[in-house]
Design brief:
GO terms for molecular function: pentosyltransferase activity. By secondary structure, the chain is of the alpha/beta class. It is built from 16 helices and 18 strands. A hairpin with a 4-residue loop joins β3 and β4. It is elongated.
């Protein structure tokens, strides 16, 4: 009896310790927004005093987790955005700007007093007056209004807070190349995801170049990243005060995430998972779609890069065995609705253009077929082909011959537009755009194109 009781006591104590450890483990996972079981693959970084600690499976301890939990949550979240020299700067002044060749982001642990386009940072340790355009792509900055950041002697101490907020601000522009799906996702939405995901909705968006249509279009994404209404700083002369914040967004380039950088080390896989959650998309992988015939989505264009024999293309696709959904630009206007349509498709086909950005909603294992027009080889790969592989989408190209382009009839076979696209590009972007982007349509050679479609069918058949 005594032996049995001893065993039960030991078992009970062991169970209690294990249960307590599990609770701490789960709390740590929620705090850092990662899966603790994957910690051997994903380094979890946090601040302790003045040092940056990497937690791996073999050095993770309850004491370290408890110490992190005691940290100031706001300071912790903001400091996760900086490293190296920027970390030293924010430790000493409470403010730091991160510079790269393609973007600039400022992080403030100090309070922010936002008066229209001016962001005041009350600090005696900081002397600052600078302008920043809170938008990723530098080539679009001529379309973006600057914000002014002032501190020290430049700070307007007479400002009174009309509204005091208790979560940090993230200031960014909805201007730039907004209106084009590719640029909106690449230069605003992905950087916004990278910058704010770790705040777990406890952040408020202060949006310059405020565009209500843009907000409506991306309301599901914005609501997933912030639990609060977006703020137009130019509205009603209201002065908004925040405990800290981020000015600008972390931007890495064309449809790019950086899985090795702070704060969260997010990948395209993480971003696509976020989109599926935000838009309630049903299919993660193409093999989950149960249809008699795989669905092929054909992106139709109306102004340039038009498929002149579109109906014949549809007939060929159906002959091969696809169920074809032909979508025109008007059918893509409701992003939430169209995302669900794309998510049910096994194959998407289109010419170079913003419509192909919808590949981001395809289930993994689906096939994206891009019809590559004359002169657009580099852009086709950089904008859509490369990102497709990061998304887990299989990518095929159909490169047209000069005979399939309307440029041949217009300029003749020996014209540099046909024989030497690089020489046209050397004349500048406007000359290149006029020739290849705005001035070209295509009559697809159905015999050649059949081979690509058959290959697409074989790829999805392997996954079905």
């Amino acid at each position: 009896m005594g032996k049995k009781l001893k065993v039960e006591l030991v078992f009970g104590a062991t169970y209690s310790v294990a249960f307590l450890f599990l609770l701490v483990w789960i709390f740590a996972a929620a705090f850092f927004y990662v899966n603790p079981l994957g910690s051997c693959k994903h380094k979890l970084r946090y601040w302790r005093g003045h040092s940056l600690i990497s937690i791996k499976k073999d050095d993770f301890s309850i004491e370290e987790v408890n110490e992190v939990i005691k940290e100031d949550p706001l300071k912790f979240q903001l400091r996760r955005l900086v490293r190296d020299e920027d970390r030293i700067q924010i430790e000493s002044t409470g403010f730091s700007c991160l510079h790269s060749q393609i973007s600039e982001v400022c992080v403030s642990e100090r309070p922010l007093v936002i008066d229209n386009q001016t962001i005041n940072v009350p600090s005696s340790q900081l002397q600052l007056k600078k302008y920043l355009k809170p938008y990723g792509e530098v080539s679009a900055h001529y379309l973006v209004s600057p914000v002014q950041i002032v501190a020290g002697e430049q700070f307007n101490s007479s400002l009174a807070c009309h509204v005091t907020h208790h979560v940090p601000a993230v200031v960014f522009s909805s201007g730039g190349f907004a209106g084009n799906l590719y640029h909106e996702l690449s230069e605003i939405i992905i950087p916004l995801f990278i910058t704010t995901r770790d705040f777990r909705s406890q952040v408020k968006f202060v949006i310059t170049d405020f565009n209500p249509k843009w907000l409506k279009k991306y309301s599901r994404i914005l609501n997933s990243l912030s639990g609060y209404d977006a703020i137009n700083p130019a509205e009603n002369g209201t002065v908004h005060c925040f405990p800290g914040g981020v000015i600008g967004l972390k931007y890495y380039g064309l449809m790019a995430l950086n899985s090795t950088d702070l704060p969260g080390g997010y990948s395209m896989v993480d971003f696509r998972k976020f989109l599926r959650e935000s838009y309630s998309l049903k299919y993660e992988n193409v093999f989950q779609i149960k249809r008699e015939r795989p669905v092929l989505l054909l992106i139709s264009r109306k102004n340039s890069r038009v498929f002149l024999n579109e109906l014949e293309m549809v007939a060929l696709m159906e002959e091969i065995g696809f169920e074809v959904v032909l979508v025109r630009p008007s059918g893509m206007s409701n992003l939430a609705k169209f995302a669900r349509v794309v998510n049910t498709c096994s194959v998407m086909v289109g010419a170079h253009g913003a419509g192909l950005t919808n590949e981001v909603f395809l289930p993994s294992g689906a096939v994206m077929v891009q019809v590559v027009l004359l002169g657009l080889e580099w852009g086709s790969t950089a904008y859509y082909g490369g990102p497709a592989s990061d998304m887990g989408v299989q990518y095929l190209e159909y490169k047209i011959e000069p005979e399939e382009s309307t440029l041949l009839k217009k300029f003749g076979r020996d014209h540099p537009i046909i024989t030497d696209p690089d020489s046209i590009g050397a004349k500048g972007y406007n000359a290149f755009r006029t020739a290849y982007i705005d001035g070209q349509n295509v009559n697809v050679n159905l015999t050649r194109f059949r081979e690509t479609l058959v290959q697409a069918m074989e790829l999805v058949d392997l996954d079905l």
